[in-house]
Every structure is written in structure tokens, then in C-alpha cells.
Design brief:
The first copy, chain A, is built from 13 helices and 14 strands. By secondary structure, chain A is of the alpha/beta class. The first copy, chain A, has 2 domains: about 130 residues, Alpha-Beta Complex (Aspartate Aminotransferase, domain 1), CATH 3.90.1150.10; about 250 residues, Aspartate Aminotransferase, domain 2 (3-Layer(aba) Sandwich). In chain A, the strands form 4 sheets. The first copy, chain A, has a 7-stranded mixed β-sheet with strand order 2-10-9-8-5-3-4, with helices on both faces. In chain A, α1 runs antiparallel to α9 and α2 packs across α9. The longest helix of chain A is centred in the last third of the chain and has 21 residues. The two termini of chain A are about 40 Å apart. Chains B and D meet through α1 of B and α1 of D.
Chain lengths: ~400, ~400, ~400, ~400
């Protein structure tokens, strides 16, 4: 029942799904349970309370949908908007593209603000659109916090500032799939109305939970939002929250226990330490890329993503060949270039439950692959650059001091 | 991280989620993987091929949605119908009620055919409606094969006969959540257009896969179906089936391996033997209920369900107390009475990976609970009736002969 | 990789190895670790401290040998005795026989006190031997607390009384393999010098830990004990206890974490509650046997074992056929009759992490098997007798009240 | 229940216990079973047959003792020798020292041939001893194939040649704990009489199986071997082999299934490929050590071990500090220097289920640690040297080509 076995561990460096810590695997290694017994509601209550911390919200209301990020998107949109509503959406890569596509198919009037792939959202355009929109026809700003395809992180604090500047009432909807629990994210402080993530990203769980968090304003919006929704309807959840049974349909028992374990691990490490670790691993990765003489797909430092790095390959190399070779020779899983950047970039995911030596093993592998495919890299150069930085900046493991 | 521990095994007899066999737990005990590597598509291909067998279809196209049964319903409806379309739907219990509610919220024109809870779908009414509908305004017949709330199994072969008799082109949509892989179900023979189930039922997996199977006619219907859909859209899947990567978004790696193991177990036992085992356990349960002097909620033998038995309690007893006591004293999980039959029935789920002695342990537990709550049952009477039947009818375990 | 699959759970009622609770399986589901890191010694320290509680000792010194019960025996004997030393040993069944055989092979001068199989140790003979032994030639009394082959529990308090009466300095060595953590056992109060058990019995772990506990007097005895020993030598452990690294050779990381989880579960339930549960399940089993019209192999009530019941079958039935049939038809694992009682008894193990409904499922199975093999049992009769008692005597589950 | 958590995977590079592959963890994730049912003997039979392949023997008889390497030693000695028997034993490091200590405590007349730690066994002395021993007073040659403390591999083929040259009948007993299944080992070709290994080494299982393989000559020797033995007695096993139940006492069900999975993985990779992988990883490690300007504890290339490298640190550095720092800062577990080389060497274990990128991650970690502790290593230098070699010599993963 295992396909394509290879000796040793798989080195999983796609930007999701990511490595699951053993503690979480253990927590999920269990039989089903009656989700209507007192146990599951009791646990769900703690989960709903605790999951707010990863959104940095106290006023938000979280929903743990048995779905993926795509479903979480749909939930965010259909609960707050009506067909025909105007949204401003930023197209900067494959995942923002897919979300925009979804918005269109859900019959919103999508005002697409496009940037080159490798650039962040064009917030100047946003400002001018808001300035013009004195009639408040814009109902929502939809933005991907971290574009996984290009390794670009958008500045959400600035989005909020612009909205405030124009005192614009548009909802602020954020895809935090590859950011929340890894990058600095502040739902309340930034006035985000709906934020969402998926369990298989920085939470380091299997796929299967689309975690959506709604501000009071977003909950208010559901009352007038006419988009058709059933499975993704927040109101069905809210009804059961009130009763105290929490679930309108059967949740995955295993994922609930897994989420409990994942949150416990994150809180033990400290969310700020988790974020600092992501910053550190990302910086090390970029130093390696630089040492190899390659370019980051992300065009400006202000957009550098701390969860994924998209590396541009020389024109004479097909980046898919790099990914293929990683899998075939080194048991290393790297991210493909998608759509516009297919063949041009490969991606190193450095998010979730990951440490420095795992990353250095990956970087050593990338070096060998680069050589394999005909790029004359100096073997060890990236590892040297990365480890010089890490050896200076890594803390001791707190539980072991 | 474990709540409400109790010595020994939990006796899980709710009609889902059900017991997961150890082989499946083992198969799912694994790290994440890159779902874009060659391994996952190769496995998905076998799953899509093999899962057809549990639907008894060769012409159907299966979809493995990361969702629950509720999501699978939504997928079945939105891919084949347009807002305003007339459906004929049978209200016979809580789950058919919920599906009808969904149909209404999805803006179909639902023609509800109601029966008393405990009765099957009124197919005479269906016949008369079809007879009248020479204009073919009825676009779909929506029917729950097995109503989990009342333990009623509808006769799908008759539905097909009626449709054929009137040469009516309506789509035939079937909720097989608590039937498929446990009851006799024949998608092709009965001309079912969409059938669906959930992983946590007879497949004995965790919750998280909504398995939907579409006939060629159903696939054809998607071309004109105007219901809004994105996450649940079959066409996104079909696009990736063609490419051979299979997944429009990230699947649960663990559930795929789990499904592989579950199917392997079912095929090893033989699907017909699996169904015969369900028939046997159900018959034994009904004999016990009879011996206790209690009534089956299901009003006629033709509707008796082989996956769940709803037992009517005397009016002076609150059936919720039975369920509560099972959990608090016997580590036994029984199904609550829902909605109209709340307090009046409790349910014994006997589906999935289960054997005779497990059931007899449950029945012994129910006897003690009945005595606890003041019903003067003869202890051992139900077990005696059930085991007299089982001892006569059980086969030897094939692998051990 | 799974042999002889059968639907549903295996009903494991051999008197060891017994069912492992999910919490323990989860705890052991882990990679290896460096046993010389600070983590393993830190955990070992808590284990050594906590394991004393299951022996009811504060003065004893425990050893966690990577071995089985047979190895634990060898450790008990070779660390305290010298070749030629006279031991008094009670032969009452297969396991006492094997221990006596070991004592002989280790060159002790074994003074065997034999009883019929089904009787307890003849303590009158012990008294007379001690009375005569004014020269103190008897160096040790070796007694099996609970003879697993016949379901006989010896009275250790009486042994101590006799030793005290004659002020005899012999060491008091106890095989507690199928008793400790299930039956009332009091190392300090009863002045036991070496007690031992195996992980796969009442602790409900996999096989692999032979847990031996030595009194101060036993430790003193090691100084003059001339039996050859290396692997089983306590002194190698004591040396590393002093250093704080604890292990003279590599332990099983998984079993240590498993033991931690097993002890946590036992302490959560309360050791006295665990023992009361064993008393209850055993009583229920004996009532069933009585209801079937069969005889307990144990000849007097004072010796009835609360961890295993050996049931005598009528002479026209081969008890092995009962065991074979349990496995082939009911997925039920019962204990064979061994040696002198082979073919004459079968055994029901009711020890470890087990609850009432599990036992009733087993009893229902035994009834059907008895009928299968031609014994005209009234189906349901044993279950009725057992559940009448249980329904009266079972407590609510404390964590769920 | 988890102590000293740290983000990401632990990098386990002690020379045992080693990383367990997920396939093996999965296989062991199971409840206990009756070891007297037909299933366990059936599986044991395949294990005993298949395990011979890792010894490269067809005539040997294997035993799967529930014990550690120390117990396996004791089994090898006590089954073949009598107290007072003369053995020739080579002291070249901590593990050969411990085995010699065991031989002395078992009352053999041990003729110790000592070498400097870092050197191999002095086979010239062996030759001269055999030459002189025309009376055949030497009953056994005891040699550690791979001394784990110093990373020294002895030449067993030469031992055999010398024995043959003098036509000396001494038994040839080999500790293959850190060699078998990783280094070239040929029981039959080299005329080894007893070879042994432990499950937690190259087999990549948890600790708990001491696997001993006996030649026909060794089995013959048991008939006259007077050493006291019970738990470790081969004859008890042979008795049950004949009966077909295989086990004189309870085995670990989990380890048997684990061994089945481990062997399946090894055979799938191919034992010769496994060995080649060890050779490759070891060579890479030595190149890194050289690049760092450090010395291998092993004094000549002919003795270089392909499973563990002991690295000599400069006199101003305490090697224990390196190990401590690995654990505290990098989640890297390295081997301590033991006894004579304590503080002077640290050890990198590179055996078992391990791949190239895992090793490179470790080497990158060692570089940072070296810098931490004040050794002015060029970061990346070792990784560069190792990966230059690996990139040239690594094969594609066969299952993925």
C-alpha cells in the first residue's frame, strides 16, 4: 500500500501540505467517536476559543469547516456578499487568480487589480478606487495575504490604513492560507472582516479543515448577504453554537484532536516564536538563493514571503525538471512553478513544523539538483550562506536550556 | 488530551461515524505528502476505478470530495439542476428533512411527499405525480435510500420501475450515506443518476470524504445546470482527471490511503459478504428488540433497515436518558432520537466494520440500560434471541477455515 | 501484511497479552530517540518512582528489564540466590511448573510442594517445612500469586504470616505476572522480597518489559548471591541509577512512553478502582459459567482468580475445539488448556484494560461456541446471570458523571 | 507526555537506536493478539526464513529473542560454551570491552587481545595464538564486527582465513550489532558460528529483538555447553520450532509485525543496495570530517566503519559539549565519546533507514556546532565535500525512475 518507496524520510518542502509533527500524528491515531457525546462539544469549545489566538482576534467568531482552502474561500464570500456585489481583488499569482475566478463564478462583480507575477498587490490602485467610490459600490476588498505561487506577501496593515483613510465601509476579506500561524497576522488590529486558513499549511495538520474567522461586521453582513449557501453557511454553525452541540453535520474526530495537539504545540512554542522561526528560515533560504546566483521571483524585499520562496531558474533550465529530479533522486519534494511561471520557477516551502537542519538538508539537495540539471552552482555555497546566518541567529531550544 | 476516559473500548453504535478497522488506522498513520508527485495521482487513479464497485457501476464517474454528506448532497444537486427546477423529494425523517431543506435553500421548487416518520417514501404519490407530469416539469427525484433517523430503507428498484413505466426523464438522485457499502445498492441496474455516500459510514473511515458518483446522464445535465457552484463543481475535477493530476485542490493524503485500505478490506471480504453481514447483524438486532417487547420505529418489514434500528421506548421513558446512561455507565454510544422522534426512540447503528460479538455486547448493554431506566426487561432475553439466530446463520471466517 | 483478516474487532480474551488501550497505542506511535539524551533519563526517573505504586511499595527498588516474564523470573532468582540454595516452590499449574523447571535448571535445590491442578498452594506443607527448618536451609519461598493456567490465586498474606510465625528468614519471591495491577497485591505489607510482572498483562502494554521490584532485603541478598548473571544483573542497573542515566543497555523508547501512558491511565482510574473492576468482571464471568452448568477448574472459592477463569468442559468435548472455533468463527481469542488440563479446560482472561460490555460480548460468544461443539447450553443464560450482577454493581464512569 | 519538545523533526544520528521508517511504525501500530493463534506462528515462520537473508546464511538457525544486544551476546556465549572455556576476545573499544566483561562474568577464561582504541582487532596475535594452540584449548574467537564506540570495522574474512590456515576448530562468534544489514556480512561464506544483531540498529526497529543466528556447528556445541541458561536457551526455542508454535514464551506482537515490515522494505530496496547506501553515506561523512580539518578516530582506512564515524576533536574542546549543544540548540542527536575516548570524540551514526539529505542536514548542523564551541570551521565546507561526492555517486530511486 506504499507507492514509490525510497530509503529514509521524504523531505517535504512544498508550500503545503507540510510536515505533521509526531505529536499530532499520535493525537489523530484513534477510532471514531460519537460527535454528539459530551466529549466532542467540550473539546470543540476549547478549540473555538483557542483558535482565535492564531488569528489574533478576541472579537472574531471562528468556524472549523470540513473542507479545504477553496471551500473556506467560498464560505468567506457567500456568507458576506450578494450576487452582483462589487469586489476589488488583486491578481498577483495563481492562488489569487483562482480566488478571483471563484468570485466571478459566484457572480460577483469583480474589479481585478492586476500586478506582474512577483509583485505585491497594487495598493495605489486600491487607494484611487476607494477615493472614487464615494457611493460605496465596493462591497469587499479581497486579498491574498501571501501568494503561495510567487512567494509574495502583501501588506495588510496598509490596506487597512487606506480603507480608514477613505472611511470606506467595504468588508476586508483575507486569504491567510499560507500565512496564518506563520506570518505576522493581526485580525483585530488590522480590522480584517473575514480571515481564513487551511489545516495543512502552517498548522501542520492533514488537509481537511478550512478555518474561517468572521468579525462582528462580517457576521452582521450575513443578514443581508444573498449568495446561495448551505454547506458553507455560518448560520447553521451559529445555531448549534448557541445550543452547545457545535456541529451542524459530522466533523472529523481525528482532525479535532489533531487541531488540539497542533494548537498545544504552537502555544508551547509561543506564537511569536513560531513566527520568528519562519522569519529565520525564510531569511536563510533567501541567503542561499543569493549565494547560488539565482533570483527570487519576488521583485522587492518588502514583499518577501517568510513561508515560501519562489526561485527563478536560468532560461535554459526547465524548473519542472528540478522538481522531478528532487523527487526521483533525492526524495525531496519541491513546489512546481504554476501557470505563468511554470517552468520558470521552483518553490521551496518553509512553513509549518520545521527546523533549521531540515531546511539545510533541503538546501543541500537543491544544490545537487541544480548541478544535475546543468546549472554550475558551487556545492555548499547556499548551505554556507544560510548556516552562517542561522548559527548567529538561532536561539537555544527553550525546553532544553 | 483525552477527555472523559473510561476503561476498555468505547462501544460505538451510533449510525455513524462508525468503528475504523485497525488496518485503516494504520494506513492513515502517516505524514503529509506532495499531492502533485506521481504517487498521489497513481493512487487516486486506482481509487476512482475501485470505488465504482461499491456503487455497482461501470459507467458512473466518481468524485472524492473533501467534505461531508451534506456537502455531497450539495454537489449532487448543484451540478445537475438549476434554480427553480422542480424536484420531487420524500420527507420521511430527519435526514430527508435536511436534504429537502437544502434543496429549498438552493432555490429548487421542491415538491415534498411526506410520510409518517417510520414509514418509507410514498411511491404511489410518486407514480401519480409522474403520471400527471406529461410536461416533464419534474427535473429530479431526490430520495434517501436509508433514512438514518428512523431506520427506514426505501425501495429504489421500485422508483426506477415507476420512472420507466411513465418513461419520465427526471434525474434519479440518491442519498446513499447510510446504505452504500452496507445495503444492496445497484447504481447501473437501477438507473441512478447521482449516488453519494460519506466516508464515516459503511466505509468505516474518518469523516472527510463525500463520495459522489454521477451517471453519464448526470454528467450531461451539468452542461445546462445553472446552480452556482465552485467548490462542489464536478467540472473542475473532470478537467484534472483529463490531465491526470486528478485534484483541483489539496486532498487529504491520509484519507486517500485510508480509502485504499478500506476498499482492500471490503474487496477481501467480498462486497456481497459485507452486505450479507449487515443483513445478519440487523436481523439479530430486530430479534432482540422483539424479545425485549419493544417496537421498531419502522412500521413495515419491507422498510426495515439493515444499517440502523430505531427502537421505540414506552411513553413513560425518555429515550435520551437511555443514550445518556449508555455513555455514562457502559461506555456505549447509541444514537439519539432526532426531531419528531426525540425522546421517543433510540437508535442502534449496526453498520461498517463490525462483527457479531461486538453487537451482542451492545445488546447486553442496552438490556442493562433499559432496566436502569425502569423498563422491566428480562436481562439476557435480547442476547438470547439474537444469538440463537446468529449461531445458526453465521459463516466461518473465510481466511481462517 | 495482515494475516487472517476478519470483520470487526478481535475479541481478545486470552489471559495475556491483553488489549492495549488507544491512549497507550498512541503514546508508543513514535520514532526512536537517543536514550542518552536528558529526556529519557528524566522520564525513566518518573517511571521508576511511579511503578512502585502498582507494587504497593515505598521501600522497593524497581527494574524495567527489556524481557518477558520468564526473564523476570530469572532475574528474581539469580540476583538473590546461589546454586545449591534450597527453595520451596509450589507446583499448582503450568506456570508454576515452568518456574520450578527454571529453578532446577539454575541449579537450585528445589523443594517442590505439589497440589492438584485447580487447587492453591498447600500452605500447611509450607508451615511444616518451615517448622522443621530450624537450621534455615530454606533460602527462598517461590510462589506464583496467580496461576494463569488454572485460574488459582494464592493467599500471600498467609504465606507472610507463616514465615513470621516461624520467624523464618527465607526470601519471599512472588511471580505476580497475572496479578499485579489487577489483584490486591501489597509488597511492603506482605513483606514480599521480589515481586515481578510483565508489561503485556494487567498493565495492558505490548510484551517486552519484565518489571521486577526488590525489597531492601533482596538487594542485600545480591551481595552474596553467587548465581551467574549479566543481562539480568540488578547491580548493572543500580550503577546507572546512581549516575542518573539509568540504563546499562538500550531500552525500548516506545515501551517507556507506553508505560508512562499506562500508568497515567491506571492512576486516573485509581488502582483500587482498577482492582475492583477486575473483581467485578471475574464475578460476572463465574456467574455465567455457573449458569451454563459448567465447573470452574478452581476447586475452592478462596482461590478464585479475578484475572482468569479456567472452565472445565464435559468429558465428551475437547476444549481445544472451543478455542479453535472461537477464532475461526467468532473472532474470539480464548485461552487453551495447558499441559495436564489440555483438552479439559478453556480459559477466559478478564484482565487489563477491559470493560463490562466487552466481557458480555465474549460470554455471548462462548455460549454460541458451546452450542456449536455440542454442549446444550441455554443461549443467553450466562449473559443474563452476568448482567444481572453487573447491572446491580457497576459504578458510573467517574469522568462522565 | 512529551518531554523537551522542539519544533520540527529530531535529527537522530546516534549509532542506535536509529530512525524507524513510517512503514514500520504503521505496521507496529496495533493491538495485542493471541500469540497461540494460527496467525503468529504463520508469520513467525516467514520471519525465521527471511531473516536468514540478512545474515547471508542458508544453513543457520535464527532466534528472535525478546531482549537487547547484551542479551543476544549472553545467548551466543551460554549456548555454546562452558564455564572455564578459553575464548580469544579483542578489546578495541567500549562495546568489545563490555562483551569481554560479560565473558569474564560468565566464567570463561578470556584471552584478551587489546588494541589501541581506534585500531582494529590485532589478527596477527590471533594467528600466533592459534599457531601455538595445537591442543585446541581455545574454544571460541569472539569478535565485534563493528566497534560502535570507535567506528572500527574488523575484517572477518581474515579471521576465517587464519582459523582455516591453522585448521583450528574454535567457534567463531560475531557481534554484528552495528553491522548486520548495513555492512557486508556473510555468515556462511565466512564460517561464522554465531552472529547476532539488535533490532534498533540497521533493521531500524525499536529496541527489543536480539536476533541470534547459529550455525549447525554452534547448534552441535549446545549439546556439551554447560553454561547455565534458561531464558536464553536455544533448546527451548528449538523445541517449539519443531512443534510449529515457535515461542517458548510471549513474543512482542508489535515487533514481529515491525520486523516483517522492516524486512519487506530491505528486500524491496535490495540488501546489496542497502549496503551500498551505507558505504556511500559513510564515505560522504568522512569527506566532511576531512574538510573540517578533523581526524577520524579510526586509525587506518581498512578499518573505516560504514555505520558510524567517530570524530576526534581538538584537545581544547570537550566533545560532550558538542553533543549537548546539538541537542539543546539544533535538535540533533549525536553520539557521545565513551570511556577512554569520552570528551575526545563525538560520533555520527549513519546507519539504518537514512538518506543523503538527512545526512547533509546533520553535517550542516555539526558545522554550526563546531563553530559554536570555538572550532574555526569553514561553514559549508563539509557539506560541500560530502555533496560533491554524493552528487556524483547517488543512484536514482529505483521505484521512481
Amino acid at each position: 500500500m506504499d507507492y514509490f518507496n525510497a530509503p529514509g524520510r521524504n523531505h517535504l518542502f512544498v508550500p503545503g501540505p507540510v510536515n505533521i509533527p509526531e505529536q499530532v500524528l499520535r493525537a489523530m491515531n484513534r477510532n471514531n467517536e460519537d460527535y454528539r457525546s459530551p466529549a466532542i462539544p467540550a473539546m470543540t469549545k476549547t478549540l473555538l476559543e483557542d483558535v482565535k489566538q492564531i488569528f489574533k482576534t478576541t472579537s472574531g467568531t471562528p468556524f472549523l469547516f470540513p473542507t479545504t482552502g477553496t471551500g473556506a474561500w467560498e464560505s468567506a464570500l457567500t456568507n458576506t456578499l450578494s450576487p452582483g456585489d462589487r469586489t476589488v481583488s488583486f491578481l498577483i499569482g495563481q492562488f489569487s487568480l483562482l480566488w478571483i475566478d471563484q468570485q466571478k463564478r459566484l457572480n460577483f462583480n469583480v474589479d481585478v487589480v492586476e500586478s506582474d507575477w512577483g509583485q505585491g498587490a497594487n495598493l495605489e490602485v486600491l487607494a484611487s478606487k476607494l477615493a472614487e467610490d464615494t457611493a460605496h459600490t465596493i462591497k469587499a476588498i479581497c486579498i491574498v495575504h501571501n501568494e503561495t505561487a510567487t512567494g509574495v506577501t502583501n501588506n495588510l496593515a496598509t490596506v487597512r490604513k487606506i480603507l480608514d483613510h477613505y472611511q470606506h465601509p467595504a468588508l476586508f476579506l483575507v486569504d491567510g492560507v499560507s500565512s496564518i500561524c506563520a506570518l505576522d497576522f493581526r485580525m483585530d488590529e488590522w480590522g480584517v472582516d473575514v480571515a481564513l486558513t487551511g489545516s495543512q499549511k502552517a498548522l501542520s495538520l492533514p488537509t481537511g479543515l478550512g478555518i474561517v474567522c468572521a468579525s462582528p461586521k462580517a457576521l452582521e453582513a450575513t443578514k443581508t448577504a444573498k449568495s446561495v449557501r448551505v454547506f458553507f453557511d455560518w448560520n447553521d454553525y451559529l445555531k448549534f453554537y448557541k445550543i452547545g452541540t457545535y456541529w451542524p453535520y459530522t466533523p472529523s474526530i481525528q482532525l479535532l484532536y489533531g487541531l488540539r495537539a497542533a494548537l498545544d504545540l504552537i502555544f508551547e512554542e509561543g506564537l511569536d516564536n513560531v513566527i520568528a522561526r519562519h522569519t529565520r528560515l525564510a531569511k536563510a533560504t533567501r541567503l542561499a538563493v543569493e549565494a547560488w546566483g539565482l533570483k527570487n521571483c519576488t521583485q522587492k524585499e518588502e514583499w518577501f514571503s517568510d513561508t515560501v520562496t519562489a526561485v527563478v531558474v536560468p532560461p535554459y533550465i526547465d524548473s519542472s525538471e528540478i522538481v522531478r529530479r528532487g523527487w526521483k533522486r533525492y526524495n525531496l519534494s519541491l513546489g512546481l512553478g504554476l501557470n505563468k511561471v511554470a517552468g520558470k520557477v521552483f518553490r521551496i516551502g518553509h512553513l509549518g513544523n520545521l527546523n533549521e537542519l531540515q531546511l539545510l538538508g533541503c538546501l543541500a539537495g537543491v544544490e545537487m539538483i541544480l548541478k544535475d540539471v546543468g546549472y554550475s552552482v558551487q556545492l555548499g555555497s547556499g548551505v554556507a550562506a544560510a548556516s552562517a546566518y542561522l548559527q548567529n541567529s538561532m536561539p537555544m531550544i527553550p525546553s532544553r536550556i
